[in-house]
Amino acid sequence: MHRYTKPLLAAFATACLATACSTTPPPAPEPAPPAPASFDHTLSGDALFAFGKASVANLSDAGRGELDALAARVLATPGIDVVHVIGHSDRIGRDAANVELSRKRAAAVRDHLVAAGVPADKVTAVGRGSVEPVATCEGERGQALIDCLAPNRRVEVRVIAP
């Protein structure tokens, strides 16, 4: 082999590699996976309902805004399989009355979602009473107890979509 052959081959190989690298576009990045459509949302019962009540007839502006924003979010969710509306109460009062109150609150939220355009056959509503508290408030009495137990008076909405 001639003494210039090896350096020429090396230079040629380098030039080819440099040219190949400069003309080959990088691979396209993989698309980000779609965001999950399912979501959970908790509505404060105290923002929506008066203490011990289940009617949405006299909602505050904040309560109406929260409920309307939830309805818009549900309607914007593609391919809804089901919307579970779950009402909760605090432990004040009789168990049977708390279950009924939580059921009525869930039904009121369900009815609002349906009135906003969510298909009625996709929405379920159940009341769980006081069996799933998020606050216990041991030692509180009177208005302090009512205030402390406020987080338990809530309505959870679970939207399930593919």
From TrEMBL:
Name the SUPFAM superfamilies for this protein: OmpA-like
**What are the record keywords, sorted?**
Cell outer membrane, Membrane, Signal
Which InterPro entries does the record associate with it?
Bact_OuterMem_StrucFunc (IPR050330), OMP_bac (IPR006664), OmpA-like (IPR006665), OmpA-like_sf (IPR036737)
Q: Which residues form the OmpA-like domain?
A: 36-162
Which Gene3D superfamilies does the record match to this protein? OmpA-like domain
Cellular localisation: Cell outer membrane
| Signal peptide residue numbers | 1-20
Q: What is its main location?
A: membrane
Q: Does the keyword Ligase apply?
A: no
Identify one Pfam family in the record.
Answer: OmpA
What is this protein identified as? Answer: OmpA family protein
Species name for this entry?
A: Luteimonas padinae
Lineage of source species: Bacteria, Pseudomonadati, Pseudomonadota, Gammaproteobacteria, Lysobacterales
